[in-house]
Amino acid sequence: MDKEITAVRIGVSACLLGQRVRFDGGHKHTPFITDTLGKLFTLVGVCPEVGCGLSTPREAMRLEGDPAAPRLVVISTGEDLTEQMLAYCREKVVELEKEDLCGFIFKKNSPSSGLSNVTVYDGGIPAGFGRGLFADAVVQRFPLLPVVEAEALSDAPLREEFIERVLAYRKK
Ligand code: SF4
Prior knowledge:
By secondary structure, the protein is an alpha/beta fold. It has a single domain, classed as Rossmann fold (3-Layer(aba) Sandwich). It has six helices and eight strands; from the N terminus they run αβαβαββαβββαβα. The chain has a four-stranded parallel beta sheet, sandwiched between helices. A four-stranded mixed beta sheet has the order 4-3-6-7, with no helix packed on it. Iron/sulfur cluster binds next to α3. Residues 13-15, 21-22, 47-49, 107, 110, 112-113 line the site of iron/sulfur cluster.
């Protein structure tokens, strides 16, 4: 194994690594990430919802309002957690600069971690699609960082393309 490659660090939504951080107390362990990519790279788990101070389990949330600037809202109570999450994001992206990440794998459909096409509701009905607040903060802070949703990695060409982008980013 190329030690230089295993030193390459990739951020990953923590639930994909098997960490029980989801709102329902479960995880979304994705063996390809831990068993295959984990042998190639060093994986750095991040759960923004736990990181911003929410408990596990917790009430489910969704994006609401303007799809271009959605708010993070607890579905059952309407509590708006946007500012709490954004405050975390501002600090976390600074911290991630020190992690020297060469890529990030996000969990699809999450109002915090989804990279694209996360449903945004308005008046209780779907009004469009947006990006999870933490994923957006990472993309804004590191615009050239290779990013992908975990589900895309089940497609072999997309998987290879992501790995190539990560290795190319490492060399820059
Ligand atoms: S999708 Fe993101 S916020 Fe939700 S449990 Fe996974 S890491 Fe945490």
